[in-house]
Amino acid sequence: MKSTLVNMTAVLFVITLVASAGVGVVNMITEEPIALAKEAATKAALAEVLPAFDSTEEQTLTVDELPITVYTATKEGQVTGYAVQTMTKQGFNGVVRLMVGFTPDGEVVNVNVLEQSETPGLGTKMADEGNPLLGSIQGQKLENKKLVDGKLAVTKDGGDVDALTAATISSRAYVDAVNRAWMAYKSVAAGVEATDTASGATHPVAEQTNEPAAQEGGQYE
């Protein structure tokens, strides 16, 4: 009996050791490709939201207790723009990440949606070319918009950012992330102290159920 128990323990130990080694090998094999793919995706996003540049300098800030990365782009030693990798946790289905590009004087060049898991056909339209959210801010300086408490806001909340049809929650989240990017841009470009940029992009979780009427499509303007 004792010998059998020892044997079983030894076999389990060997199996665990082999499995752990296998996981380690897989991680070693995949770590570099994953890092390279992430780097390539970031470079592609930067190219989409910035004027022409030949190099970038990266700086990470904390805004509203969230990590925000600002890329200062230069060409021949002159700053050509700023790209801000920003995020919000206020999406209908959680985290939304954006890359927002600014000219040196603060005009929005473009916005690239890096991550979202919003309702298909509704909130997902934030990633569509020419969507109303982007159309409301692209080519404009945000300080010239109709601000609410100094921040961008969708029309339903008193601002002038056009929301996605039947996707108010996702639209507010998008605006929340852009507000955070704007604050980070001002912090790096003009030395403005980063402060709370929350744009009211919150809806009680209790309001969001799996019932059709309570899904994002039910949140009409």
Structure description:
Helix content is about 35%, strand content about 25%. The protein contains three helices and five strands, in the order αβββββαα. The chain starts with a helix and ends in a 31-residue tail after the last helix. About 10% of the residues have low confidence.
Low-confidence segments: 197-215
The number of helical segments is 3
Beta-strand residue fraction: 15-25%
Order of helices and strands: HEEEEEHH
SSE layout and pairings?
Blueprint: H1 2-49, E1 55-63, E2 66-75, E3 78-91, E4 94-102, E5 108-115, H2 132-135, H3 168-190
Antiparallel strand pairs: 1-2, 2-3, 3-4, 4-5
Task: Provide a brief overview of the structure.
With 221 residues, the chain is α+β, with helices and mostly antiparallel strands. It contains three helices and five strands.
Relevant terms:
single chain; 221 residues; alpha+beta; five-stranded antiparallel beta sheet; 3 helices; elongated
